[in-house]
Amino acid sequence: MLAQPSETCLVFHSRDLDRTARFYRDVFGFDFEHRGSGASRLLFLRLGPVFSISFMAGTPQPGTSLLVTFTLPDGGIADVVDGLARLGATIVAPVGDAPAGKGAAFRDPDDHILGLYQAADKPLTLQENTP
């Protein structure tokens, strides 16, 4: 096992986060947390103990822009991405900046694109460095 996610988050892109927040508030009564600022701004809503939904600024591509993202509670995203590559997974997006943390994306054996996320205060690797 490469990692045990602590939650699953559906991540969408939105052209206008304020409009999106109003829409989902008016339709479902969702009260999003507004996190980050500027280009890192996002909307976040916990829907259950281990399930959430987020909207981040970007260009939506319906049918392709939804990203199921697994949160790594202890960090180690670089280790997981390396392990996925060793298992033959296609790394779609290497470890990079994400709102309030780091993210990456990969393709599963059926070509579904899935994401990984960890908070900014977690280490990129859990492997001990040996001299």
Automatic annotation (TrEMBL):
UniProt domain VOC: residue ranges: 6-119
PROSITE patterns: VOC
Domain of life: Bacteria
Gene3D superfamilies for this protein: 2,3-Dihydroxybiphenyl 1,2-Dioxygenase, domain 1
Protein name according to UniProt: Glyoxalase-like domain-containing protein
Source species of the chain: Devosia limi DSM 17137
Phylogenetic classification of the source organism: Bacteria, Pseudomonadati, Pseudomonadota, Alphaproteobacteria, Hyphomicrobiales
